User: Fold GntR family transcriptional regulator from Aeromicrobium camelliae.
Amino acid sequence: MSWVTPRIEPGHSLREQIEESLTAAIIAGQVPPHELLTVPVLAQQYDVSATPVREAMLNLARRGFVVPVRNRGFRVREVSRDELVHLVHTRRMLECPPMHEVAQVFDASVRSRFDELVAAINDSAEARDFATYVRSDKAFHLGLLGLLGNPVLVDVVGNLRDQTRTVGIASKITPEQLRASIDEHAMLLDLLEAGDGQGAADLMDRHIGHVLGWWSGEAEETAATATN
Assistant:
């Protein structure tokens, strides 16, 4: 377990912080499939007692991220290509059409908040800190959907995004592809601010498709075929 663990802040739920940290590390591929995670080692790594770690791991097991291994710990579960295809297909159905409504409520008064998230996405990508990248990217996209005031949609899409993980993404995507994917966030904000809901929906469709393409080390044409 060689990923860098963030500092656990006192006064906040230890279980939630550990679960969020492990979720991001697994999604980013920093903790690979089949790796065995043990409560004592994680507790030492996070400098906390075993209780919040155990609670976090049990939640991750319920969410399908890990599988309990009797008397040993928890093993990270691998997401198959077929599962990724189904997840991407579902996310496109849930994340693209709402861009029409988001474009109707998005304006300059909320843009600065999302510009800050774009900057965080860019900074973490330049640092090759993909766990932080994943957290900032999720905050950006769920924040846009949150403008519609539908917490059920935000929760469902958030869970789907968490399940949409690939292995070793840092080594699969090229710097040029990563830059293009990052730039799409600012492009999306421009389209929304201009009220171009269809353009924003089309861009979201392409952006989500990178999961099966660039982020999986595949050609984008192959990714498009996989979801048809």
